[in-house]
Amino acid sequence: MSQNRIFLIGSTLFCLAVCLLPSNAREATAQIVRTPREYIIVIKGDVSDANLITGLSPREVSAGRGDPVTWINESQVEVRMRFGKGTQCRKVSVRSLGWRLEPDKCYETEDTLKTGESTTIRFKEVGVFHYEVEYADRNRREKGVIRVQSENP
Q1: What's the gap between Cα 126 and its chain centre?
Q2: Domain map of the chain by residue range?
Q3: Choices 1.10.10.10, 2.60.40.420, 3.10.105.10, 2.130.10.10: CATH for 39-149
Q4: Per residue in 21-46, pLDDT tens?
């Protein structure tokens, strides 16, 4: 008999604790925590005999919303980055790139990413983000794509 009372009291207390929580707290307790994955894109560029051999590795990434995507400039040349299409791009610092890039807008870095430097972006919006890396003073560009999904791909 005493075990039934303890069970009944424990069940009642648990129900009261959960039922009295604010609705957003109840929803938060039911969500599964997702560990973000990190993606790295290497910007390549080798200057030999006045030629520039360039590339991005990988050229395309499928990431989940909020996952960090990092570009590392391993080229011998400084680079600028541009996200989106169009002629009217919003000028931003390479350091301020982050959550607020929208798939249908255009953003262009004012400063360059020097050899050995990196920049990281966490995409908040779901969508397809086209970008290009421009090799400063070399008239050379490489294009890539980031596909952001609501969950881990």
Answers
A1: 10
A2: 1-31, 39-149
A3: 2.60.40.420
A4: 565 554 555 556 667 789 999 999 88
